[in-house]
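pasting for ref
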Amino acid sequence: MPGARAFFRPLDAVILILVAAAALWGFLAFRFADAGKAVVYVGSVRYGWYDLGGAVRRVEVPTRIGPVTLEIGAGTARVVHSPCPNQLCVRKGAVRRAHAELICMPARLLVALEGGSENNASPVDAVTY
């Protein structure tokens, strides 16, 4: 058949190898790091931030439906008590990785874990093209 094109050409193999190498680099370079602090938001207002290091301590955060009790320390954060009806935030359990979040929608509460120690923090937080 004259002029028929092959389905897979040699340059396609080079491009496929480059894409696979870039994907592998992405998985290895952006490992999940432990968080260093918990930032608490109530509504759209930043309530405060807490260091995750040290002993476990309880923090009571006032919200529109009542106080939410957080347990922060030993590298983790979790919601211990919330006045919301379905208790999804309590059942979520403890989180420890950077960029993890605890959310209580009825209370409009967000606990976002950020950063880690300087030793295990990646210099790149995000890349957008």
